[in-house]
Each structure stands twice: as structure tokens, then as C-alpha cells.
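Sat 14:20. Reprocessing the chain from the morning session after the first attempt stalled halfway. Input below, unchanged.
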Amino acid sequence: LICYSTAKGYWFIRGLTLQQLARMRNPFYDTTVLAHDGRLWWFAQANGVLFCDPCTPLLEPPQLRFLPLPADCELDGYVTFDPRVGALMEQRRCLRPSEGKLRFVEIHGLSYNVFDDVDPDNINATLWMWTLDEPEDPDPWTFEYEVAFAEIWDDNTYADAGLLPGKVPHVALVDPNDHRVVYFLQGSKIFGLNAREKKIVACEECLPDLQQMSSISRPFIDAWE
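Finished this time. C-alpha cells:
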């Protein structure tokens, strides 16, 4: 870790001790770093979450630990090295803080096989969310909800917002104050969905078409209060 001391006014480097990284098939595929609950968190989308406490005493190197994703969410190693799969993970997965806890969101039902001929817009995709309660516990993830996109598309608020039914959007972020609200990108629109009520609660045109700026779209936006 590269750190800055506000007391001393200089930069310094802290070494890390590594634990459990043998379980990571591709530990360097990290795209999101978060500061939350006194720790630093790195989201390795294919496998899990790396985390450490950067404020341990200087004589005790921080331990970099690995937390696997919820059951059935870890991808096979052979697909994670394909950059096209990385782009798909960016569109379908995110880890964000909301209401004081980290929330993992994934769109289920879409293939990560880049050679799959199935049209991703015409299959039974669902939105899933888990909450990270305590990373030290044997079972740290709590399942929150599952919502089928077919039900979301059938609600009047989806068509009223000018959104295209039958087309799975890209995950953008989780509302920091309400974990039931997840934001998505579709074309030049960003919209918020209340997953419990299956209703669109906000929809705005973005000046650029974020999905056309890059195949990896989520790093361009974040929640701000």
C-alpha cells in the first residue's frame, strides 16, 4: 500500500501479508476499490473480494484477505482471462455500499460464453442481490432478493420511462441510501429500479451514450451525495 501521513507530511509504503490467494484464479482482475467500514476492498468480479485494514500498527503489516463470492457466482478460470468476459462482468455485476453494508448485485441467467449463440436479450434474466454481513463469519453473505426482468418489463413505469422491454440493461450502481433501488444503463439513459416493487423510480438522459463510450461502462459513473 502507498500511504500518506498527514501528521508527518510524507508518502511511505506498507507491505502486505497475503492469505488465501491460492483460491483466486485471476487475482489481478480487479476493477473497483472501495473504502468501507475501516477497510479497503477490491472487487475481483470473477471470484470474490480482497480486503485489508490499512490502519494496523506500523510494525504489523496489514493482512490482505480473500472473501469468495456467494455460492454459484464464481466463474470458471478459463473464461476469466478473456477480456470480452471482463466486459460482460462489468455490465452484469457490481459491489457497492448501501445503508452501511456492502451489496453484491448480479444479473443471473446470461451466459458468459462469448461463443454462445443465445441472444442475451431474449432469455429469462433475473436480478439478484446479496448483503455482506461480516467477512469473518463462515457464511458472510445474506441473500436479499431475486427479481425476474420479465416482471420488471411488464410494469407500466418501464414503458412510461421510454425504456426498451426485452433488452437486459447494464448494472450501474446501488442507491447508497436504499439497497432496494438499483441503477442501470440502457443506451443514453440511466434509471433507478425499486426491485421489491418492480417499478422505475427515476430515469434521466445522460449527455453521452455511456454504453457506447466503452464496453466496460460502469467505472464512468458512481453515486454521489
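Residues 79 and 113 are 7 Å apart (CA to CA).
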